[in-house]
Inverse folding.
């Protein structure tokens, strides 16, 4: 999905992560930290736009890192979330 499009791939990653949160009884409001891994960190603004749209009111700590590759060469981004559940 979104081949070559960091924004679209980030949105998809966040959709998957949000579904996992929901399955665990959590919501985006429970997220305290995110990590965005990019194949090309110079494209961080594209991923940040998607992240900001999803977490503007939550404002978790966020780290962007560059990685050399992913399992699938078409992947440009991967997202990890840490959430605190009561």
């Amino acid at each position: 999905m979104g081949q070559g499009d960091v924004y679209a791939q980030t949105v998809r990653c966040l959709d998957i992560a949000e579904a996992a949160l929901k399955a665990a009884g959590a919501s985006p409001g429970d997220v305290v930290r995110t990590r965005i891994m990019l194949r090309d960190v110079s494209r961080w603004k594209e991923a940040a736009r998607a992240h900001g749209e999803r977490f503007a009111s939550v404002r978790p700590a966020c780290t962007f890192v560059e990685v050399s590759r992913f399992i699938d060469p078409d992947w440009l981004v991967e997202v990890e979330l840490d959430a605190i559940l009561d």
